[in-house]
# Entry
Amino acid sequence: MTLAPQSAPVPWWVERWLQLLDAYRFKKRLERARNYAREGNVLSLEFDGAELVAEVQGSEAAPYRVRLWLEAFSSEDWDYVLETLAGKAFFSAQLLTGRLPERVEQAFIENGLSLFPYNLGEVQAQCSCPDQANPCKHIGAVYYQLAERFQEDPFIIFQLRGRSREDLLTALSHRRRGEGAAPSSESLTTVSPTSNAPFWDYDGPLPPDLVALAPSIPLPNLWDRLGSLPLPYETEQEIKQTLAALWPLVQERILAQSLGEAGG
# Structure
């Protein structure tokens, strides 16, 4: 199992999860589990609410069923956390674009919670295999496969704490709008096909609920649309490298401004 290409750094949230495994005292047991994961024995990973359900191929013909979960936060806990997150434009901008800011844990700590478990003992798991050890190699294989899934989707940690990605972002966006009601039909300008007014004209202020948050355009795709720069090749490459480094910051700043705050 390869967590990331050697040239790419491992995201901090994956490091946090792997630290739990590295701190586990039964090293040989987890080493066997790591090999299981590398060999592709984890057949599936799916969520059933806040629980992760996996199928792991063992020595028997039928795969074993593994269930893994953390202590889910209460609705009241999540309300406090979401209020804290909504009050920080930088956190909101990062989360709403699918990123997990490293300081996001502070929002949970401020409310007496821990987003990540302190140790592997806080991770609850069950396996249908006859091995009484916990973690058995099937559960351990899920631990390592989950690290790879974390790299693809950091919002898994929120799901394990009781909030899906969709629910979290919807609630966060709602709070960023001040829990305002949806715009009424009277607040919109209707232009009929026979109107003499230009189609794109809009006389009133744009209601904040009409702001749409969509995935950003990857920079390589943007270059494809714009075409080559009318500059020498070396100069063009230098400019592209500079813009590639600035692109994530520009996106965050734009989103922060659209959410009502000019600062990060």
User: Anything to note?
Assistant: Strands lie at 42-48, 51-56, 64-69, 124-127. Residues 180-202 have pLDDT under 50 and may be disordered.
